[in-house]
Amino acid sequence: MEVRRSVAELGARTYAIQLLSDAGIPFLVGGAYAFAHYTGIYRDTKDLDLFLHRKDADRAIELLTRNEWRTESEVHGWLHKAFWADFLVDLIYSSGNGITGIDEAWFEHSIPAQVLGCQCRVPPAEEIFWSKAFVLERERFDGHELTHLLLKVGPTFDWERLLRRFDRYWEVLLSHLLVFRFAYPSDRAIVPDWLMRELLSRADRSVDQGNWPERICRGRILSPRNYRVDVDEWGYEDGDTWDVQERKKDDPSLVAGGAPGTDGLH
Q1: Residues in contact with 225: Cβ distance below 8 Å, sequence separation at least 6, in sequence order
Q2: How far, rounded to the nearest angstrom, does the alpha carbon of residue 135 sit from its chain's CA centroid?
């Protein structure tokens, strides 16, 4: 439900944007504001999400601290927080699962937008889709945002780049595309046929390959909290920890957004 935010809260968000802009710190406005820009759907938000490179997030938190904001650094290992009174701004430089970090492509493919009366830039729709696709918590599921994003701007997606982004996590992409096809059967053509055939052929090959020899729960990548029981009580290896080790390997095809045309382990 939309909630009318106070003038003071909206003013604090505007103040943060103006401070970073005046200091020449590059950032992208994400969250509800970016979603509204692309879809026209406004959802109430308790904070302002700004996406930055790590070095710029550090500069931003120092700037806000100097300007009398109350700040918290390296919260959960992937964002800083700044408070003006009780009004929150998140400075996001990575992600909870470490997969969908903020790299140069976020800025290279960003687009201009007006947010709170300020000229800003918002993340590319493809990167928004990519980052939200891994949020499958019981209390937080962004699936409807993904389907609405596809419906409204899917025809302009750089699908090859999005496929490279998902890379070895292609099954997550396929799952969301199938939900979109179910939700909007008259709009299935928004997703290119070549992409669906590619992903379904990978799924078909994975059926032939059968079970992995290792007993791993990759659900931990999607919902660390709700798949905790699998590791603590049911004897599964922690798929999140396993995935971190895989990403550290030198093989570029095992890094999210790496070389196209590789299925990865599935």
Answers
A1: 137, 138
A2: 8
Which domains does the chain carry? 1-123 (3.30.460.40), 125-266 (no CATH)
DSSP state of 185: G
Q: What is the Cα–Cα distance from 200 to 195, expressed in whole angstroms?
A: 8
What is the residue-level pLDDT of the chain in tens, covering all 266 positions?
A: 345 788 899 999 999 999 999 999 999 999 999 999 999 999 888 999 999 999 999 999 999 999 999 999 999 889 999 999 999 999 999 988 889 999 999 999 999 999 999 999 999 999 999 999 998 888 778 889 999 999 999 999 999 999 999 999 999 999 999 999 999 999 999 999 999 999 999 999 999 999 999 999 999 999 989 999 999 999 999 999 999 999 888 445 434 433 333 444 44
Residues 6+ apart with CB under 8 A from 253: 167, 168, 259, 262, 264
Coil, strand or helix at 112 = strand
Asked if 16 contacts 50 with a C-beta cutoff of 8 angstroms, the reply is yes
| Alpha-helix residue ranges (DSSP H) falling in 167-227 | 170-183, 193-209, 219-222
Max Cα–Cα distance, the chain, nearest Å:
60
Ramachandran region of residue 54, left (φ > 0), alpha (ψ -120 to 50) or beta? alpha
d(CA 7, CA 3): 12
> Is 184 within 8 Å of 151 (Cβ atoms)?
yes
- Distance in angstroms (rounded) separating the CA atoms of residues 134 and 122: 20
> How many other CB atoms are found less than 10 A from the CB of residue 201?
11
Tokens 């052929």 belong to: 201
